[in-house]
Amino acid sequence: MANNDTQFQRLAVITELVKQAPDRFGRTALMKCLFFLKTLRNVPLPYTFTLYTYGPFDADVLDDLRYAESLGAIESTLVAYHGGYGYVLSIGAQAEAIEGRASEFLSQHQESIDWVIGEFGDRSASDLEMASTLVYVDRTVAEKGTSVSTKELAKTVNDVKPHLAAITIEREAQDLKEKGFLKAVA
């Protein structure tokens, strides 16, 4: 039963993020918002994020999203973008039922969910990729007990993601530092 409760907690958080998100909220935004909830707000989500093509990633998030879709809590719509396709997420007919199964957990973490949508919900996939990768690399450095400058952090991220402009990465790193989101930046 506890395992089932944990699963519905994850599904309820996903559903609540989609419900609160602005238009055009997709899979990348969902993935990064869950990463930020776990990493920056310590919401006890069981995901184990690793660095992947578009930043921190855990395939379990996509499994949970598919399950939420199969239960009718979330709907995905395929849309065309410049250079490709993506999915836009919206609330399904069973959203309230799913959230009801984990209402206590949602209540405990509602402030963090509100915060992550306010802070990151309207950002583009590229911006989220950059910010989440900066936080991921920062945490990796912090776990080693070392520190880096904003410039060094930005250079490391630019080495991993050369398609992102170095100056833009450095500006984002500075912004994240000023907001207190980075631990290893001296």
Main CATH class of the largest domain: Mainly Alpha
Strand percent estimate: 5-15%
Mean pLDDT: 95
Element string (H = helix, E = strand) = HHEEHEEHHHHH
Radius of gyration: 17 Å
Low-pLDDT segments: none
Structural class: mainly alpha
Largest sheet, strands/sense/barrel: 2 strands, antiparallel
> What number of domains?
2
By CATH, the topology of the largest domain is Arc Repressor Mutant, subunit A
Number of helices: 8
- Which strands sit side by side, in order, in the main sheet? 1-2
- The number of strands is 4
Roughly what percent helix?
A: 55-70%
- CATH hierarchy: architecture of the largest domain: Orthogonal Bundle
Topology:
Blueprint: H1 2-20, H2 27-41, E1 50-52, E2 55-57, H3 59-70, E3 74-81, E4 84-91, H4 95-100, H5 103-120, H6 125-143, H7 150-160, H8 166-178
Antiparallel strand pairs: 1-2, 3-4
Helix pairs in contact: 1-3, 1-5, 2-5, 2-6, 6-7, 6-8, 7-8
Give a quick precis of the structure.
Helix content is 61%, strand content 12%. The chain has helices at residues 2-20, 27-41, 59-70, 95-100, 103-120, 125-143, 150-160, 166-178, and strands spanning 50-52, 55-57, 74-81, 84-91.
Provide a descriptive summary of the structure in words.
The chain is globular, with a radius of gyration of 17 Å. Helix 2 (27-41) crosses helix 5, helix 6 crosses helix 7 and helix 7 (150-160) crosses helix 8. The protein is mainly α. The protein has a two-stranded antiparallel sheet. The protein has helices spanning 2-20, 27-41, 59-70, 95-100, 103-120, 125-143, 150-160, 166-178; strands spanning 50-52, 55-57, 74-81, 84-91. The termini are far apart. The protein contains eight helices and four strands; from the N terminus they run H-H-E-E-H-E-E-H-H-H-H-H.
